[in-house]
Amino acid sequence: MKQLMKPSILAIADSDSYLKLATSFLTRLGPAWDRNVYLARTPVMPTAEQIAAAFEGTDLDADALQVISVSQLEADTVDEDIVFASATGPVVAEIYSRILRTEPVDGRCTALISALPGVAFPATQKGWNYRRAGDAFICHSHAEARDFSFMIEGKEGHQPTIMVSKLPFLRSAGFPPEQKQVVERLVFAPQAKVPAQEHERESILLALEQASRMNPELEVLIKLRAKAGEPQTHLEAFPYDSLFEKLQAEQRIGADSRLRFDTGSMSEALTDGSALVTVSSTAALESLDRGLPTLILSDFGVSAQMINTVFVASGVIGTLDDVIGLSFGEPTKAWLRENYFHRVDHSFAQSLEILAHRARAGKLLTDPEVLAHIRRQPLRHRLRTTLPAPLVRVLVKLRHHYRHSRKNGANSLS
What we know:
By secondary structure, this protein is an alpha/beta fold. It has 15 helices and 13 strands.
């Protein structure tokens, strides 16, 4: 039985971006809640530097962070009312499975919630399927909530309640402050997945180099999520720091280049006088939130593949030529209202407290269809919570080969 007086929540994260979401989310809840953070032991665990960056600016103690194995997680090892699965899809699915399989279906005492760490528009069925066994799914804008609602409209069986909060690392209560156009520092925020091609990424570095040379007083910073070879939420085929060294070796960027690379907290980079450029990154929202000039690159397309359709009609889409000329647009209020900068009220916090109290009273029910759903969870999803990705791929290939061999054997006997 839970003896804690305040509503309580345990966040379980597995990578750098999800750990940042967990720490900022719990900080937003504040000391009215009992809060704990665990880090799941997976192949994408953040480095010590990434952990420090995730805790920076929060009221949580990084030294209290516990590292756990998801395979050891069961309902009776959790004292909190709510488990916030702030993790990649397979890990969320495994966390949910571990809790749901070890609690009574007609009197569950642990509520399960999840969210994505940044822009979740457009909604994807794959991401939803990993998380659909939960009690609630948190969206961070009205546009996101509508898109997920449309996706599940008419679907039978259990679906999580869609809640609308605000990205917890955004400070503004509604519209952000007006932009200041004096740019002393240009910050580029990479996205690990896009653009995918090497030559596209090189073109960004070359444009940043040109902006630096045309504006001698300008500081140009490439704010890395991780250095080449370090773990992060998504694999990066062509890290920018490696490409920079390649371009210098080819003498396409001079040895006297003033481009600077850094890791650590985005908050440290987005100081007064800064401007931000990205293809698709949550950092764009952090920049807008601080009233800084912000530009979303359209040179490689504005599409679902580039993960930047959410910025259509935002007023801040531009090109590499705009980067070189330090030309930035103003965000439109209609877009801001629908996308991440809605006015905050108390409805989300109240809904979360109600969910916590229902859990403490043992009033949560588990739909039998949900249990059937998690039992059908592919083996490869469970393996990904513990094994390195290359080993998982080998095991999956062996499994397919075994099935194929058995099928051929059965055919030869018939």
